[in-house]
Amino acid sequence: MAINRTGPNMNAIAAALGVSAATVSNALSGKGRVSPELVEKVRAKAAELGYVPSLAARALRTGRTGVLGLVLPDIANPLFPQIAQAIENAASNAGYGVLIADSRGDIAMQTEAIARLLERGVDGMVIVPRRGTRIADVGCPVAVIDTPSTPGNTVAADHWGGGVQMGRHLAALGHRKVLLIGTNTSSNVQNDRIGGLKAGFGAGIECETLWIEKVEAVAGEGCPLGLAEKAATGFTAFAAVSDLSALRALTELQRAGIGVPEMVSVTGFDDLIWSPVVTPALTTIRMDMATIADLAVAALIRVISQDGEAEPAASGNVASETDRVPMQLIVRQSTGAPNSHALQPSNKPTAGELKS
Amino acid sequence: MAINRTGPNMNAIAAALGVSAATVSNALSGKGRVSPELVEKVRAKAAELGYVPSLAARALRTGRTGVLGLVLPDIANPLFPQIAQAIENAASNAGYGVLIADSRGDIAMQTEAIARLLERGVDGMVIVPRRGTRIADVGCPVAVIDTPSTPGNTVAADHWGGGVQMGRHLAALGHRKVLLIGTNTSSNVQNDRIGGLKAGFGAGIECETLWIEKVEAVAGEGCPLGLAEKAATGFTAFAAVSDLSALRALTELQRAGIGVPEMVSVTGFDDLIWSPVVTPALTTIRMDMATIADLAVAALIRVISQDGEAEPAASGNVASETDRVPMQLIVRQSTGAPNSHALQPSNKPTAGELKS
DNA sequence: CTGAAAGCGCTTACAG
DNA sequence: CTGAAAGCGCTTACAG
Fold first, then answer.
1. What are the pLDDT digits (tens) for A117-138?
2. Domain annotation for chain A: domains and CATH numbers
3. Which terminus in chain B has less CB density within 10 A, N or C?
4. Where is this region: Disordered (chains A, B) (predicted)?
């Protein structure tokens, strides 16, 4: 029966050249020892005919699909675009495709998503686990991107170190009473960031942590966080562990007539899309997603390639020693010295440092 | 040579049951006429053995991979999570996997991304084109998600209709002078939204469009938009055609000491993640991405399934009659009657309607 | 350096 | 209702 194949296959090239398919294969892959002239002829003919290799056939034969899975806790997460873009880029540079799977925040769906990818024969997967989840052996090489303090983590941003940088920045500006804002007490990433912030503050800075999940458990979703009241009690900086919370804080404070950064400073994490866009632009910490993705994909590919060889049919976490990728502080207008000029909100933003 | 296959194949089931592989195949697929008892036995044995079909083999044999490609103009786009999640969901419900490809804003890369997906043998693709791009015949069924007014569009939100709803909402509140805010003059989506807004205003509303790209071309990226000055000249509402611009407007106005919604109203489009989170929460228009994705995937699958049959080796845009999916107005606190109470900014948001 | 042959796991006419 | 056989397009020992 005729199959949906549009272009020519290896046999067509072989026939056109009067050589064997094996030679075409070897010439194209550069594996077998084929004479340079023949290699050239084969390449030329392949190009002329518009040959496109059948990845399905190759997969069937070699047992490798050349596809990596990307499992995300919740695609709707605003950090997702950065992650997906970086992984897709790293993978396609390495000649791999990326199949996505969304666990939609649910642990059961995470398991199901992993199973779906496995059925599709991915050679390995990158998993950004749902918080608290420990990824068991899934039956193929796995790179986990979470936080360096998470057991089984493969590669991650140095969230703690990022916190330290931000903590020092605020300390250097002269803040002495800082409100930390987190959303979720069980997030390793957030806890690391908070730990780093406190370490960066050093002695002499008083701080308190506000968990939004707890506020909302009492007052309902989207309720005010009471930040104006906090400012009234002497907090001069609000350090959120995510840009979304920082945005929430910034607008709540602005709406209460509290000038940022003249009266209080606000900081975030992750440099999400709106951070440079809001007024005042948000001081934040950026992850080097490109590097993280490169390391994750490289680790995966290393294991995948070994898999053919020697002893271990590696099919678990590729963590060995965790890679810890530095984060970068981005100072924008939302931070300044505390009460440097306790003016009424004006429409002239202070100059501030701007490092892009 | 032993291949990377972990589990049993059809032959294993066939052997265990003393039947042929063909029968196992027919029983499992439900295609051939196999006796009910045998079907049951085959299913049981498959489950017992933990049989997982080889999609690579099936693909090689049938010419279908069961994978759809998703091409995005720029994964970093904040709308992307919604799109990707919806497409992934629709596809996986239909038994398809989703391979992503990012054109990173570049037209050449868009072409390359499409080629990569094609090489991987996707059965079809969903393309969200870069603005202005017209997708040529790519060699497989394609569903284009852009805007109903775009030639070749397959399915899209009714951006114009959404604009109309928002226009009417502002008109009903009593606004008479509205500033429209767009980023890009060549975006079909944005032009449709603006057209709808104007239509929704009807007569008696004065409006003007501010294109951010033009402002920035002169004043540089991230510069103030001069909205406070606009408010001073009598504009009481600022209708952005994206939530990101709305956020920019909201914070710029707040920072200038202009109360939203007491003094001016601000609206966005798309109901992105931060819209319900900022203070005041943003009135916006939501796309029904789930429906759009379902329609796009369904259209693709319809063509893919026909492909085996009769005449046309369909390999182009699956557009025939464009589906136009209604958008939904979400009224939150950022809109109110103009100058209803020209108070100083207070820290008590007005109650406002809230429709979630 | 080159080729003949086998086989990856499945599906599909076709014959029985 | 069931099975034998062919073949999708490739790669890989192996022989020459």
1. 988 999 999 998 877 667 777 8
2. 10-53 (no CATH), 67-157+289-326 (3.40.50.2300), 159-287 (3.40.50.2300)
3. N
4. 334-356
